[in-house]
Write a structure and sequence with these properties.
Two copies of one chain form a homodimer. The first copy, chain A, contains eleven helices and eleven strands. With about 325 residues, the first copy, chain A, is α/β, with parallel strands linked by helices.
């Protein structure tokens, strides 16, 4: 963060899906109120007008930085994405994406149904050629430094050219957001040697050698958190499995600690003392807790936050959206 | 382990690659000596006769349960597998696999060059049709129970039928070794729904529905350690990446703890108290520390231990090999 470019002075206008997420609209509105207290951001809450007015009234907010755009319908978290966005044209997702398409806002943030947000983004905003769906990319704040991983699940089957696209888009992102001159791009594989990995990876490897990125070659699973690369490129199947393994191992660690304390109560004090450290390690693995994921490959700024987002996570996603707009990441990628 | 079948009374004869591994021959021989003190195992150390005699002399061993089979050559850990086994016919790997092929031993254990062990096993012992290479499978002792994962890296590109083979072989293994009546088989995917995942996984899913295994459907990365399935089936690319991510996250956890203690020395005592718990969680992720991996799909018992194996790991691998022989796992798989 210390290395990011100085913020421009203008305000960034962001639409927020106030009805999307497990804790909507309460936590979403609370997060919006917290974010709107900062300088440089103007929020448009998208959702049912009467509900959102009531929510805002709770905080006694009379903040000209927050307005409401009415959307009557809500896409449920478990609804099938494509039918949902086709049938619910007046949903908070479709209205929010519409505001973005019309240029009334510069970014759209949603903790709602990820598939529906992606489908709406593809349909309304358009996506880059060669991708089945926009890639989901997120920055993990590992102790060794920030690492952008993509795709985290949108494209379960990738062509070699898709992996090269991820590398190019990811490099630009890290240049713009973290001010890295020449981000090191690693291709996730089952061995470091050029000849290791699936057919997909071997083909992508050859293409990446010629691509205009700082390609450092194959990296292995253990390198994800080691700081060897700034951008890690993989297909959406592997990315999704990895992401969820990380979450599962975090839970396993906590469970093991609980069992150890249950077996030996003398350990309780030690476990309590170290709890913030564990939480921070586990939090590192859950990208959506701290700013959400960017949809790479759509022609505008769309940020997906975790379905479980609380107010703090929403605030962070809004801040991340603001930074993405200011650094003109999507413009640079599209160019 | 409590549920394993009663050991048969006969001795199991096992060949051990005494020259393979980062700490060979010292730690390998030390592990052999420890294992030979147990009943029911007879070991053949394969390697340079003069070297192994000297090593055995250190322990003042005069144990009729340990003999030496001379092999003049050694395959280095970083040597290219196929040329190595073709050129070094008198290597400890080739001689050990030869003893197995001739029926002079019932199992071969090596902490040496994994690729060379696999190549030798395919060449000399033969493998099941449909596999590019024998699958590497290992049991992870998660707090929720043992979970067999395969393939962990031998087949980076799989056909749907390979994944079905893994499911069948894995089920038999868990039935025999853990006495499970009907092991639950999960297919690793990027979502629980039948339609989620790559083309490979979607095809395998349909075939597994009809296969003679207790198929519980797709499982996600977070389910690996959750106890939802007893056998987790995946292609060797994804399996390898996962395995190494687990190792990397273990290192990250230790690194974060070190940093936390460095920043706040008051935490040192707590960290020391909980260290055995961390070590055990991290150890859980490193399968080869506790018994090695079985090569699934070759027509004999070959166990691959970690290259970094110390004497304890070697002893565990020998015990695992003995159990695999006694429970006639490979015979059941081949049948």
């Amino acid at each position: 963060l210390a290395r990011q470019k100085a913020s421009k002075s203008r305000k960034v206008r962001i639409a927020l899906d106030a009805m999307g997420g497990d804790h909507a609209p309460g936590e979403i509105v609370r997060g919006a109120v917290a974010a709107a207290e900062r300088d440089g951001v103007e929020l448009v809450l998208v959702g049912q007008d009467r509900v959102l007015r009531d929510e805002l009234a709770r905080y006694g907010v009379n903040n000209s930085n927050i307005t409401i755009a009415h959307a009557e319908e809500v896409v449920a978290m478990d609804e099938r994405p494509v039918p949902a966005i086709k049938e619910k044209r007046d949903s908070s997702i479709m209205v929010g994406i519409g505001l973005l398409a019309q240029g009334q806002v510069e970014s759209f943030v949603s903790a709602g149904n990820t598939g529906a947000v992606m489908a709406a983004a593809c349909l309304v905003l358009g996506k880059n050629r060669g991708l089945a769906r926009p890639a989901l990319g997120a920055v993990f704040p590992f102790p060794s430094g920030p690492v952008l991983c993509l795709d985290l699940g949108a494209n379960p089957d990738c062509k070699p050219t898709s992996l090269v696209q991820f590398a190019l888009m990811g490099s630009i992102y890290m240049q713009r957001i973290f001010n890295m001159e020449s981000p090191r791009v690693g291709l996730l594989s089952s061995g470091e040697e050029d000849t290791k990995g699936s057919q997909l990876v071997q083909k992508a490897h050859k293409m990446l050698r010629k691509a205009k990125v700082n390609f450092i070659g194959n990296v292995e699973g253990r390198d994800i958190a080691s700081g060897r690369a700034d951008v890690i490129v993989t297909d959406g199947f592997t990315g999704n499995v990895l992401l969820k393994l990380g979450e599962g191992l975090g839970e396993m660690l906590l469970e093991s600690l609980r069992k150890a304390v249950a077996a030996n109560p003398d350990l309780k004090e030690a476990a309590d003392l170290l709890e913030p450290t564990f939480r921070s390690v586990i939090g590192t693995l859950d990208y959506r807790e701290y700013g959400g994921a960017l949809l790479f490959g759509v022609n505008n700024n769309v940020i997906v936050a975790h379905g479980r987002s609380d107010a703090e996570a929403i605030k962070n996603a809004i801040i991340a959206a603001k930074r993405t707009v200011e650094q003109e990441v999507v413009e640079a990628i599209t160019a």
